[in-house]
Amino acid sequence: MSRPRRIDLRTHACPMTWVKTCIALEPLAAGDELEVWLAGGEPVDSVPRTAAEEGHRVVSLAPLDGAPAAWRLVLRKGAAAARLALP
User: Fold this and answer.
1) CATH number for the domain harbouring residue 32
2) Where are the alpha helices (H) located in 1-87, listed in sequence order?
3) Is the per-residue pLDDT at 15 higher than 60?
């Protein structure tokens, strides 16, 4: 599998973190991975939870090395979610 696409949302607050994550997931095929950098707090709680509710897999969630209060989330786009994406 190739390296996941990455987006840095550390400067964004909810709900924009989820909106921008959805936009980044949209062109991906089922099984592709997206790496999302998030600020701590609400984004770290809500983005992984909402992604799982939408049919994506949370591959990992861990502190981002060298960045205080920042997190690295890796999502794998789900097949059900891929069918719902716009053409």
Assistant:
1) 3.30.110.40
2) 16-25, 42-53, 79-84
3) yes
